[in-house]
Specification:
The protein has 129 residues and is α+β, with helices and mostly antiparallel strands. It has one domain (15-112): 2-Layer Sandwich (Beta Polymerase, domain 2), CATH 3.30.460.10. Helix content is 36%, strand content 21%. The protein has a five-stranded mixed sheet.
């Protein structure tokens, strides 16, 4: 299952390796004209990944192309386990690259699911009351 709980035997990547893989992801998305690329550090906050990357594509074809190109770039970078869900033309494609999960949305779906609000750093701040 993509983005599910990790098996205990799965080795976690080092911060340097995570930075390198995240760089490959962001560079690939920007080359494909993704909009609003955001990275979120999940270390210590989620069991399914250490980082999340969120980006917007304006059309099904663009999102499908972004997913396809990203999978290719990740394989070239040595990422062995890549799982993709929703790439057959939907409002949301999820790419699970192990310690980094990538969400590609159409604008309406991104607003609806609001992952930045759900996982953003502002959740760590105490509520003002």
């Amino acid at each position: 299952m993509a983005a599910g709980p990790r098996a205990a035997s799965v080795a976690r990547r080092t911060p340097d390796t995570l930075d390198r893989v995240q760089g490959v992801i962001v560079e690939s998305l920007e080359a494909d004209k993704a909009e609003g690329v955001v990275t979120i550090d999940l270390a210590g906050r989620a069991s399914f990944a250490d980082r999340m990357v969120i980006a917007t594509g304006l059309a099904d074809r663009q999102i499908s192309a972004m997913a396809m190109h990203l999978e290719q770039k990740l394989r070239e970078a040595g990422v062995k386990r890549i799982q993709t869900e929703g790439a057959g033309g939907s409002d949301w494609v999820l790419i699970d690259a192990g310690d980094i999960v990538v969400h590609l949305f159409k604008p309406e779906a991104r607003a609806l699911y609001a992952l930045e609000k759900m996982w953003g750093a502002d959740l760590d701040l105490p509520e003002q009351g």
